[in-house]
Amino acid sequence: MRRYFGRKLLVYGLTFLVAVTINWMIPRFMPGDPVQSMLARANVSQPAAVEAMRAHYTSLFGLDLPLWEQYGNFWAALFRGDLGTSIWLFPTPVTDVIIRAVPYTLALLIPSILLSWWAGNRFGAFAARRRWLDNTVLPIGYVLTATPYMWLAILLAWGLGIVAGIFPVSGGYSFAMRPNWSWEFVGNLALHWFLPFVSLFLVAFGGWAIGMRNMIIYELEADYSTYLSSLGASRRLIRRYAFRNAVLPQITGLALQLGVLVAGALVTEIVFSYPGLGHLILQAIQNQDFFLLQGTFLFIVVGVLVANFIIDIVYVLVDPRTRTGIGGEAA
Amino acid sequence: MTLRVDDLRVHYRTLRGEVKALDGVSFGVGDGEILGLAGESGCGKTTLGKSLIRMDGRMRLAGGTVSLDGAELPIGDDRRMNPFRFKRVSLIPQYSMSAMNPTRRIGRMITELLASRGESVDTAELERRLDLVELPRDILGRYPIELSGGMKQRMVMVISTLLDPSLLIADEITSALDVSTQKAVARTLVEFRDRGFVRSMIFITHDISLTYQIADTIMVMYAGRLAEKAPASVIVSEPRHPYTRMLISSLPEVGVRHAERRLSGIPGRPPALLDPPQGCRFRDRCPLAFDRCAEDPPPIEVAPGHHVACWKA
C-alpha cells in the first residue's frame, strides 16, 4: 500500500515538475512584450523617462536576467508562495488576484462535477433496461454530451437570460451591488451562478448517464448477475451489485474527465463574464500578463493533480481488486 | 420420482426463425438419482439444464410440462418460477470462475443472497460444508479474486446447495478443470447427494467417461431429442442406439495400443435445428440407416429402464 502511494506520489511530482516548466515557458515564448504594453499604457512622451521606466519594469519582473536564472528564481519564488506581480492589475500580486477569483470557479466546478456525476450515474442506472426511458431520454443525453460547453451556455444565456429574462447573463453579481454578507447579495450571487452552473451540469450529466447506462447493461449480463438470478435473488439485489460494479469505471472516468470539465468551466466563465479563473486567463492573455497567466495555469494544474490523487485513494477504498493488486496480498 | 419432464419443447428466437433446441424430450429423475446428460455440442443439453431453472431472454417454452416432487414447475413463467429457484431447483453454472460478485466478500454476498430469498445463514452448517469441501473457514471474509479456480468452483458448489434443493443441475462444471480436479469435483457431487444436500441431480457434460463414474443413469441426447437413456453401466457396456455406440467407441480405452486400432470418430455433424430434417435426425450420419428412418423413431423401452429411440434397437 505504501509503495503504491509512493509510486503515485512520484508520478504526480514529476507531472507537477513538467507542468510548471511548460507553464513557465509558454508566456515567455509567446509573441508580444508586456513591458512595451505597460509603457504604452503609461503614455509617457519623454524618451529618457520611457527608457528609465523600461529599465525599472524589466528589472522588477526579472526579465533582464538570463533565462535559466529566471527559471530558477521562478521556482524559488514559487516555494515562497510568490507568483509575481500582475501586469494587468499592476501592482497587485498575482496570488491576490487568483485568490479573489478562485471561490467563483470552485463554486461552479465542485457542485457541477459532483452533482452531474452523482445524478448522471443514478439516472443512467435507472434508465438502463427500461425501454421507454431508454428510447426517449437517452437520445437527449447523447445530444447534451456532444454539445460544446460554450454553445450550450450561449443558448441558455439567450433563452433564459435575454428572451425569458429570468436570469442575468453576465458577471458574478449585479454591478449595482458591493460584496457583503446580506441575504440580498447572496441571492443575487446565486442568481448569477445558476446559468453557468446549469450549462456545465447538463453537458456532463448527459455523458455520465450514457456511460452508466451502458455499464449497467454490461454488468447485468455478467456471469455473477446471471448466477444470482438463477438462484432467484431479488431484482433489487442484482441491480445494487451491478450498480456498485458499474460505478468503478465511472470513477476512473471522473479522473479522466476532470481536466475537460475544468477547461469547460473556463470557457463557460468567459461566456458569462463570470469572475473566476477562466475570466482571468482571458484577461491575462489579452493584456500579455505572463505572471497572472502562469499563476492561473499553475493553480489549475495543482487542482487537477490533487483531485486525481483523491480519486486514486477513493478507488483503492471501493475496489478490492486494486487493493490486492497493489498489496500483493489480502488488504 | 423427483422430476418428471414430458414432451418438453424449447425454442430459441432468432432473426431467421425459431431454432428448435429441444424438440419433445421426456424423461424422469428418481429420488437420489444422478442423471448424466451427455451428447455433443448443440444437442440441447445446456438448453435443457437452463430450461429447468431459468430461461434466458431468447428462449421460449413451446410445449411440454415439468413437475418436481409432484408439483408443476412453471418453467415458462419467470416470475412464478422464482420461488422454486435455489430452494427446490438449484444450479452450479458453467462459469463458476466468474459466478461471484468480485466486489463483495463471499460471506457477505451469501448473507445478502439468502436475505433476498427470505432466509438467514446457518453459520454452523455453512462451516460444516466448507470443511467437507476442504475450504478454509476464513474464506467467507475474502473476495473471490483471492481464490484459486478450484476453490471458486467448490465455493459455488457449496453456495448452490445451501438450501438443500430437490434438484441440482450441474452444467459442464468440469470442463474448465484438469483431469484430477475433475475427479475430485465429481466425487464431491456424489458426496453431496449421499449426505442429502441435494435429492437428485442432473449432471450435464460432453465427457461420457466422467459421467460414467458418477451417474446412476445416463441419457444421451442428439439434435434436441433423446437418443438413449439407460443405467450407466448398460449405456457403456451394451448401448443400443447407433449414435451411443459410436460415441462410446470413439473413447480411448486403457490398455489398447492405438497404433493397432485407430480410434474412430463420428463423421459428419449434427443437423441444423432451425429447420430440422424429417424422420430420425441421426439418419445422415448413421451407418445402419434404412428406409424406415424417414419416419420418426419413438423412444421405446427395450429393457426395464432402458429407452432407445431407434428403429433398429
Which key features would you list for this structure?
heterodimer; A: 331 residues; mainly alpha; MetI-like fold; B: 313 residues; 4-stranded antiparallel beta sheet; 24% strand
Can you count the helices of chain B?
Answer: 9
Strand content of chain B: 15-25%
Q: In terms of structural class, how would the helical and strand content of chain B be classed?
A: alpha/beta
Largest beta-sheet details of chain B: 8 strands, mixed
- Indicate the overall shape of chain A: globular
The helix content of chain A, as a percent range, equals: over 70%
Report the top-level CATH class of chain A. Answer: Mainly Alpha
Q: What is the end-to-end distance of chain B?
A: 26 Å
| Number of distinct beta strands of chain B | 12
Could you explain how this protein is built, in words?
- The complex is a heterodimer of chains A (331) and B (313).
- Chain A contains 13 helices and no strands.
- Chain A has 331 residues and is mainly α.
- Chain A has one domain: MetI-like (MetI-like fold, Orthogonal Bundle), CATH 1.10.3720.10.
- The termini of chain A are close together.
- By secondary structure, chain B is an alpha/beta fold.
- Chain B has a domain of 73 residues.
- Chain B has nine helices and twelve strands.
- Chain B is globular and about 65 Å long.
- The relative contact order of chain B is 0.15.
- The mean pLDDT of chain B is 88.
- The interface between A and B is medium-sized, with 24 and 31 residues.
